[in-house]
Design goal:
This protein is an alpha/beta fold. It has a single domain, classed as Aldolase class I (TIM Barrel, Alpha-Beta Barrel), CATH 3.20.20. Helix content is 24%, strand content 20%. The relative contact order is 0.17.
């Protein structure tokens, strides 16, 4: 299986999701380690999941967390990348700056000065995740410099999105979900989307 687009699956919380998505050849899996989130995972749970999967990059999603929390987690587990929020100006995170992903949770935050802000505070960043996009606000992506890969929620069918973003380097931002019960999951929506971008079909 080979996917036509870069795919990141955020908020992985169980081994079922992790193994299914890695088997479907997504590019990266994200784990909610935001100290301010009610749905955050314990690092021990993340470690347990990670030891059963391979062939996919692992992302620690810290978002609005403090430097102390972020560095503390990074001392306990290795990740291929970390994600922090657009307005998180932490200066002393002990991690390769080229492997930091910036999350823009609300398209309304994207302004004409956004590129200057990114260059000033995150000069080495190459990937942005932009959630909550819709037909009403998709045009805001025109303000983002073409040097960035942007990962977006598939608010419409992929063909329509690709036509709209012809000049953009974009990938897909998907979400993990809870198990119905341990070991039991419904993958219908996720499998339909991934199969729709499978180059081998």
């Amino acid at each position: 299986m080979s996917l036509k687009y870069f795919v990141h699956v955020s908020s992985i919380s169980n081994l079922s999701d992790a193994r299914y998505c890695s088997g479907m050849m997504v590019n990266s899996l994200g784990f909610n380690l935001d100290e301010n989130s009610k749905n955050k995972l314990e690092i021990e749970s993340v470690k347990e999941i990670c030891q059963w999967i391979n062939g996919v990059k692992l992302v620690a999603e810290f978002n609005n967390s403090s430097e102390k929390h972020i560095n503390g987690i990074l001392e306990k587990e290795d990740f291929d990348a970390i994600q922090i929020n657009y307005k998180n100006n932490s200066k002393n995170i002990k991690f390769d700056k080229n492997k930091v992903i910036i999350r823009i949770p609300d398209p309304k935050l994207i302004k004409r000065e956004t590129n200057d802000y990114l260059k000033k505070y995150f000069p080495d960043v190459e990937i942005l995740t932009i959630d909550n996009l819709s037909p009403e606000n998709i045009d805001c992506l025109d303000l983002i410099d073409e040097k960035y890969m942007i990962l977006i929620n598939p608010y419409d069918n992929i063909k329509s999105i690709s036509i709209k973003l012809t000049n953009k380097n974009f990938g897909l931002l998907l979400q993990g979900s809870d198990e119905i019960r341990p070991g039991l999951k419904d993958y219908d929506g996720l499998s339909d989307l991934l199969e729709s971008i499978d180059e081998s079909l």
